[in-house]
Write a structure and sequence with these properties.
GO molecular function, one term: ligase activity
Radius of gyration: 23 Å
Keywords: Ligase
Helix content: 25-40%
Pfam family, one: AMP-binding
Largest sheet: 14 strands, mixed
CATH architecture of the largest domain: 3-Layer(aba) Sandwich
Number of strands: 25
Distance between the termini: 37 Å
Protein name: Putative 4-coumarate--CoA ligase 4
InterPro entries: AMP-binding_CS (IPR020845), AMP-dep_synth/lig_dom (IPR000873), ANL_N_sf (IPR042099), ATP-dep_AMP-bd_enzyme (IPR050237)
CATH topology of the largest domain: Rossmann fold
Strand content: 15-25%
Oligomer: single chain
CATH superfamily of the largest domain: ANL, N-terminal domain
């Protein structure tokens, strides 16, 4: 079965009598039955019911439906319901500030906002009336004056599935927002389903999903990656799917142990937080044959920990690099042998090769846009048929990142002689002294107690290193040894995990962190392509 129409995806999975069981670490926010176990027919029913709620609240063909709630996979169930009634869902992370949410909602101008009382209250406390941005607001978890509650919409019959052209807008996702207000990216059925999800739905040897697999996904479910994953994973009919919404290892552990996964996908930040669970023969990752990571690089010590925790003969780590606007652009495999060879922190910033047949990459001079030879650093441009339709409310910004048929990723990288690509820095975060990303990898490898290392570039000063540890401390002697052969760095700032500002996907908000620590936000890069 290949994914096509997200509005009837679960109906088609149920008709195919796929036996997949879905297990949750907590009930869906849209499920009145508060169940933590579902069959595909039960999920199909829930989507149809949700479509009835949205229609009753006034959403219909061509309307935008904004969804802002706590992190859970029912983001995608609500999106499927919106697609079913002909609307265009816009999935916005509740991790965003009230001010940023207000900006994005103003750009969207949604016919309907689906949210929670907590999100609305937080917006008010931060000076933003989020409900005023939409024609109507549906609150999932309580009664809020001037809005619709579940009692107002429950029990309404959903209209028949609405069909749309493959090139019409299907769904809107926002970028991670590490450098400021996120962009709102519009994808069509052709780009995100036809070019991305269908490609993942092929049963390739060794890395293709199998009917016997147990999938575990610990992600940020408001983002485009999980919408694509929902389409491909369900169509492959695995034995079971476990959904983890938390980054707390103590809460994730029981779910993982109840059904040890054979395929694991998670945010880079979740891999770091769950790493203590890899220890011991009875660890919950002992059956893992494949690990999938996206969004950002994962350091070699973490990759080694998960591959070492598996008792599978040849487990693989599949690393993908891409953007919300393009989907995956490159992929790379790590094995126990390859990460063993990646000593001293080397190896994590090699992005691998472009996706065969689907993607082309080139490196160009940032000023002239002329192609650069192998080994020379420049802007990375991509060419892919999966490129999105545009940005909502920022057409000029979108046009500035298009160069003929090429997309400007805003990343600085270099092409290696073997055809693989090396990621050095975001253009806006770069510094002439060193590669911040490579330096972070080296520091991570040399500081065993570091959960994460961040190197911040600031004009006119040496780069500022930030070391994230469990107790917010770094040993001076270990630090001195770690930087012995590196370019000059300032004295490190040691922080705990929760002291670092992050996006909904766990990425560090570098400009905000720099401002908190120094009071400045200046950058070497132009920032023209963020």
């Amino acid at each position: 079965m290949k994914p096509h129409d997200m509005g009837v995806l679960l109906d088609e999975c149920a008709e195919q009598q796929l036996g997949t069981r879905v297990h949750l670490d907590r009930p869906f926010d849209i499920d009145a039955g508060a169940r933590t176990h579902h069959t595909l027919p039960q999920l199909a029913t829930l989507v149809r019911e949700a479509a009835g709620w949205l229609a009753a609240a006034g959403a219909g063909p061509g309307d935008r439906v904004a969804i802002v709630k706590d992190n859970h996979w029912d983001y995608d169930l609500l999106a499927c319901a919106a697609v079913r009634v002909g609307a265009v869902p816009a999935q916005l992370s509740a991790h965003l500030s009230g001010e940023v949410l207000g900006t994005l909602l103003a750009r969207l101008g949604p016919a309907l906002l689906v949210t929670t009382a907590h999100v609305l209250e937080r917006g008010r406390k931060e000076g933003t009336d989020l409900a005023s941005t939409a024609r109507a607001t549906l609150v999932l978890d309580g009664a809020v004056p001037g809005t619709l509650g579940m009692d107002d919409v429950r029990g309404h019959t959903a209209p028949g599935p609405h069909r749309r052209h493959d090139d019409e807008p299907l769904v809107i996702h926002h970028t991670s927002g590490t450098t400021g207000v996120p962009k709102l990216v519009v994808h069509s059925t052709r780009t995100i389903i036809g070019k991305l999800a269908r490609f993942e739905s092929v049963r390739l040897p060794r890395i293709g999903l199998r009917r016997t697999d147990v999938l575990a996904n610990a992600s940020a479910f408001a983002h485009g990656r999980t919408f694509c994953w929902t389409a491909s994973a369900l169509c492959m009919g695995p034995a079971a799917i476990s959904i983890i919404t938390t980054q707390d290892p103590n809460l994730a552990d029981p779910v993982l142990r109840a059904r040890p996964p054979t395929v694991l996908e998670a945010l880079p930040a979740s891999f770091v937080r769950f790493q203590p669970l890899t220890e011991g023969l009875d660890n919950p990752f002992r059956r893992v044959r494949m690990v999938i990571s996206t969004y950002d690089a994962v350091h070699p010590p973490t990759v080694r920990a998960y591959l070492g925790a598996s008792r599978h003969k040849r487990p693989v780590w599949l690393e993908g690099w891409g953007q919300t606007e393009t989907g995956p652009l490159t992929f790379r495999f790590h094995t126990r042998q390859s990460v063993r060879r990646a000593s001293g922190g080397a190896g994590t910033r090699n992005l691998g090769r472009p996706v065969p047949v689907k993607t082309r990459l080139r490196v160009v001079d940032p000023d002239t846009f002329r192609p650069l030879p192998s080994g020379q650093a420049g802007l990375v441009l991509a060419r892919t048929a999966a490129c999105a339709l545009g940005y909502v409310g920022e057409e000029e910004r979108w046009s500035a990142k298009r160069h003929g048929g090429w997309w400007n990723t805003g990343d600085i990288g270099a092409r290696n002689r073997d055809g693989s690509f090396e990621l050095l820095d975001r253009e806006v975060d770069r510094t002439p002294q060193l590669s911040c990303l490579r330096t972070e990898d080296l520091l991570q490898a040399r500081l065993p107690n570091a959960l994460e290392c961040v190197v911040l570039a600031e004009p006119g000063r040496d780069p500022l290193p930030v070391v994230v540890t469990a107790d917010g401390r770094v040993d001076p002697a270990r630090w001195k040894e770690a930087v012995r052969d590196l370019p000059p760095l300032r004295e490190p700032v040691a922080l705990t995990w929760d002291q670092v500002p992050r996006t909904g996907t766990g990425k560090v908000r570098r400009r905000e962190l720099l401002h908190r620590l120094t009071g400045r936000t200046g950058t070497y890069g132009s920032g023209r392509w963020t």
